[in-house]
Write a structure and sequence with these properties.
The protein contains one helix and 16 strands. It is mostly beta strands.
Length: about 260
Amino acid sequence: MKNFSISKLTFAAAAIIVSANALAQTAAPAKAPEPEYTFTGNLGIFSDYRFRGISQTNKLPAIQGGIDFAMKNGLYLGNWNSNVDSTMYNGANIEMDFYGGYKATLGDFGLDVGGIYYYYPGTGANPAGLDVKNGELYIGGSWGPLTAKYSYAVTDFFGAPDSNGSWYLNVAAAHDFGNGWGINGAIGYQGLKGGAKVAQINGSVVDSITDWKLGGTYTIDSWVLGLAYISTNRDLAGYTSPNKNISNGTAVVSVTKSF
C-alpha cells in the first residue's frame, strides 16, 4: 500500500505539472481591434515660435495647441493654433491652421498627402496692409528615423501679391536613445516668388531662405521637455521692433504634452 500511495501521489503531481504547462501555453487573449477613429490633442509652451526658422512672435514666448481626428482608413483632419506678433500679421494676434489629408504605410515607408490653410483672424485691420493668409498642398514621406515634406503654395504666399507657387522642402531625422532621451534635427529650404521676396536688414532682397534645427528632448510621464537651436542664413528685421533680427540663431526651450 505504501508504494501504491507514492505512485498515486507521483501521478497527481505529474498531472498538476502538465495542467500548469497547458495553461501557460494557452494562447493570449486576442488583441483588441483597432478603433475606427481616434481623437488626440496637444498643448505646449515655447520660448519662441519659429516657423521655417523665422520668429513669428518677435522672439517672445508662445502658447500652442491643437486637436487631431484620424480614421482607421488613413484619412485625417486637424487644427493647430498659436499666438503671433500682431504687427507682423497686420492686426491678427493668433494663427489658426486647418489641415486634412491621407496617411498610409507601405512596408517600412510612410506616405502623407494633404493640404493646410493658415488663417489669421483680424488680419487686414490696417487698410494699407496685407490680408495675411496662405493655402498649401503638401506631400511627405518617412522611412525609419528620416522624414521629408514638400509644400506648395496654391494661394498668394501669406498675402504677398503674385507669390503663389512659393514652395518649401524640409528634411528631418530623429533618434530615440531610450530612457526618455531623444535627438532631432532638420534642414529646410524656402523658395519665394513674386511679392514674397523679402529684404534683409542690410537692404538686399532675397528669393530664398534656408533654415536648420538641432535639438534634444527628454520625456517623463508623457511630458516632453525640449531644447533646440534654430537659425537661418538670412537676417530679417522684426515688425514690432524693426532693429531686431528675427531669423538669426536662437535657443528655443519648450514643454509639450499630448493627450
